[in-house]
Design brief:
6 helices; 5 strands; single chain; 5-stranded mixed β-sheet; Nucleotidyltransferase, domain 5; alpha/beta
C-alpha cells in the first residue's frame, strides 16, 4: 500500500488533556502526493460538561448549547476509525499504524487524542510517526533566511497560509478547515522543497 497521511485538527473545551475534552474533530486523508482523498468532521459531546472554558469558546466559537445533540466521544472515535478503514482501505485497526499523522503543533492534539482513547478504554491504533507543519516551516524558514529569501512572518497556521497565498474562509477556528489547510500547506512546502538546490 502506498503512503497515506492523516491531517487532523481538534477544538477543545479547554487547555488540559484529561480534564478538558475534544469537542470537534476535523481530519483530511491524503495520498502519497498530499492530494486529498476524503475528509471527516464531527462535533463531540463533552465528557466533562462542567469544565467548559469560556476562553476556548472565543477561539472556536462553539457553544455548549451546540453540542447537545453531538455524538459521544466513543461514538466519534468509532466513526473516525470506520471512516479511515473505508476511505484509506485499511483492512484492520492494526493496518492503520502505517498512517503518518500530520498537524499544526501536532503534539498538543496528539496528547488530547491519546487521552480520549484512554477515556473510552480503547488501544491507540496509530504509530508514532508525526509530521508537524510548524517544525517543517521552521526548518524551511531557516534555509530561506540563509539564502536571503522572503520568509513566513510566523509559525502559526495563518502566517504560513498567508506566506503560501492561501486563505482561511472562516473567522473562527474550525477543525476541518484547519486540517484541510494544514494539508494544503504541507503539500506546497514539500513541493517548494524540491526547488531548493544545495
Amino acid at each position: 500500500m502506498s503512503e497515506q497521511y492523516l491531517c487532523i485538527d481538534l477544538e477543545m473545551s479547554g487547555q488540559t488533556p484529561g480534564i478538558h475534552d475534544i469537542i470537534q474533530i476535523g481530519a483530511a486523508l491524503l495520498d502519497e502526493n498530499f492530494e486529498q482523498i476524503s475528509t471527516f468532521e464531527s462535533l463531540i459531546y463533552p465528557e466533562n460538561e462542567a469544565d467548559f472554558d469560556p476562553g476556548s469558546k472565543r477561539i472556536h466559537g462553539i457553544s455548549r448549547f451546540e453540542l447537545d445533540e453531538a455524538p459521544s466521544l466513543e461514538e466519534t472515535i468509532d466513526d473516525l476509525e470506520y471512516w479511515l478503514q473505508e476511505e484509506g482501505e485499511f483492512p484492520s485497526r492494526k493496518a492503520m499504524r502505517d498512517l503518518k499523522i500530520c498537524g499544526q503543533g501536532i503534539n498538543n492534539d496528539i496528547s488530547f487524542l491519546k487521552a480520549s482513547y484512554e477515556t473510552v478504554n480503547l488501544t491507540w491504533p496509530f504509530a508514532y510517526q508525526f509530521i508537524d507543519l510548524q517544525d517543517i516551516t521552521l526548518f524551511y524558514k531557516t534555509i530561506l533566511e540563509a539564502n536571503g529569501r522572503e520568509v513566513p512572518k510566523g509559525l502559526g497556521l495563518n502566517a504560513i497560509a498567508e506566506y503560501l497565498e492561501m486563505e482561511r474562509v472562516r473567522e473562527k477556528h474550525n477543525a476541518l478547515e484547519d486540517a484541510e489547510l494544514t494539508g494544503r500547506c504541507l503539500a506546497e512546502l514539500f513541493k517548494k522543497a524540491k526547488e531548493i538546490k544545495l
